[in-house]
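Hey, sorry to bother you again with one of my protein questions. A protein chain has come my way and I'm curious about its shape. It would help a lot if you went through both lines with me. I owe you a coffee for this, so here goes:
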Amino acid sequence: MQYDKSEKTNVIDHREDEKNEMEANNMSDHILPSQTNTDTKHSDIDSSCRVYVITWNVGSRFPDNISLRNLLGLNTTDHQHMADIYAIGLQEVNVQPQQQVLGLFKEDPWTAKVKGALGDLGYVVFKTEQMQGLLLTMLIKRIHVHHLRNIEAEYTRTGFGGIWGNKGAVSIRFNLYGCDMTFVNAHLAAHDSHLEERIQDFKQIMDNHHYHVKRFRGIYDHDYVFWFGDLNFRLSGEDTSKEVEEAIICNSFDELITRDQLSYVREVTREAFHLLHERKPTFPPTFKFKEGTCEYDLKRRPAWTDRILYGIQPDNCKPNTHLHVNQFTYKSHPDYSISDHKPVTGEFSIKLFPSDKIPIIHFSDLYVWRIGEENTVEYTKPVTFKECEHDWIGVYQCEYTSLRDYVAYEYVCQAESPPPSPDLTTDPFFTHAPRRLSQRHRNPNYLRRQMRDNDEIVRLDFADDIELKSGEQYVLIYFQNSGLRGVTSVYGISNVFRAEMAGSSSLIPNVD
């Protein structure tokens, strides 16, 4: 399968970021379904989704005492037209032993910082993947969580011949509204003279980066690919660092970009990234700076090391439809100076094709959860919906900001009590060690099924020791877990319900 090589049909005029951003804000076909336990019929709807990509080599620094609002587009973007998806790729995240130990029990400081900035605006961290200093964090608007399918992370080491993860790639792939996409965050070999090593890193990632979702095993099998990171491509030629700096001061970007190694291997030799597109950078080279300043460190020649590329697989879409990408912005953020790199962002709009053919779990309305009592959760599933052994239902606070932030969960298919410790190979969010239905309080008939003509009603009892907070609001989320490398899908979200102490006299029939 080949990616679309025609720039004309898939990209727009790249000269005016401001004009393009205005056009993006005026688009009226955004996907904005409400979060309910029913699925809207979308079979004949073409919708767009806005994607915001960030790449930044943070040089082992922490996000203390800095604001990420400008980097996340929160200072300049109308909140009504904010991105549906954020993809945040960092390189050289601090990986000292104490940080790795802390990472087993709490979020990385960068992910926590981003979640703090975006959580109140309705975003959810739905997946992160880290390999040593490479960190990829994916967020999505909470109203879209119901439509996330086949979420999977992958990584490839390329450092020291593939045995060390200081270089390589991490990625997260998923399906949203009928389209499959993958986001790849890479850190390739450094130094001006190591062009061949960078090409080999790319090939090694392509050869070894494999997913476990049918039809989407490779990176280029996806409808949309976003590949970004510290790709480390430099400028060819023998000019000195000072001469390159003088050309930058004169805004001679067009002359410098003709000697850009990435453009050369992508467009001329076609040895790497040749099936992907990149908007021509119109910002100054993003490496190498003296930390804390906007002054180039001339120990290295300035270069555009930090890049964002994208691709489309036109053969994947259904008949009489076509995929499409518009890029509205591609810029650096020179005010961020904690490392020797400047962060780069790109904003895109992609076409999606919502479908009503995917079976959905429908939760029956639940108004009050009685703390200290057993509570029965009831849902209906189509007979065509195939449960997996490790499917589970999580209890979340109503305004959850991460799929890891469940309060409790229970498996729906296992006849016996799960082991005391989570199975690290199958539980996709095991690190928070949630409360299960305990052996001590288990009702032997906790799972009951009732078959009907075209569907099945399932009733699942949660134990009386689930620790919810009285007066707070929660939702239930049904996850399908295939058991293959944590491939996870969201198949149902309940209505909002309130937790109350057992014996409460409240007769409120619903929740605001």
Remarks:
- Confidence is low (pLDDT under 50) at residues 5-16, 22-45, 415-428, 430-435.
